[in-house]
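sry for the spam today, last one i promise. struct tokens for design, 186 residues
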């Protein structure tokens, strides 16, 4: 069974990023993956310092990403890019965490613009050799897209977010099987 971890780059308890990632993880679980959500608002993660190897919960968080077959990264849009919370977490991660890992991307916008955020996430994940799936999700006006029970108001948006979770789980499964075959041939 493959393992899919979602990382919410929001610090808000009632985060729409977190809520959307929960929907993506439910779909990944339905596709056969074991799942876990890392909500960065709930962890101790000091500002990244390149001269200090481990700080706060960084060792545990990077281990979870490193051991995952797939990762779904989510961030709210802040000033046309990802949040500082997401960036700080992402600075702790390197080739060791993302090399050949299947990665899905999700951005939630208070207004209507999320394209640059997804592009920034895409390029930084590729920079550490993560394999970003083509299906990515941006949510405009995210606070209006969920009802009081946390369900999506728009069924088409629900389908897109669920597809992201399924695609990450399925691609992770295919890559894990290919790696196992390659290792068996050695």
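last one done:
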């Amino acid at each position: 069974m493959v393992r899919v971890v979602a990382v919410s780059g929001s610090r808000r308890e009632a985060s729409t990023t977190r809520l959307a990632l929960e929907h993506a993880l439910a779909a990944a679980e339905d596709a056969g993956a074991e799942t876990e959500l890392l909500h960065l608002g709930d962890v101790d993660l000091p500002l990244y310092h390149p001269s200090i190897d481990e700080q706060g919960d960084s060792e545990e968080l990077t281990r979870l990403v490193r051991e995952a077959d797939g990762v779904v990264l989510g961030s709210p849009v802040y000033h046309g890019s990802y949040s500082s919370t997401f960036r700080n977490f992402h600075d702790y991660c390197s080739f060791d965490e993302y090399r050949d890992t299947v990665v899905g991307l999700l951005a939630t916008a208070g207004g209507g613009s999320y394209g640059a955020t997804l592009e920034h996430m895409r390029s930084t994940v590729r920079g550490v050799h993560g394999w970003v799936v083509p299906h990515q999700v941006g949510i405009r006006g995210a606070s209006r897209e969920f009802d009081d029970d946390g369900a999506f108001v728009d069924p088409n948006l629900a389908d897109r977010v669920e597809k992201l979770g399924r695609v990450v789980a399925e691609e992770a499964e295919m890559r894990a099987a290919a790696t196992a075959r390659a290792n068996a041939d050695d």
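The beta strands are 3-8, 34-39, 70-78, 81-82, 102-108, 131-132, 137-139. ok im logging off now
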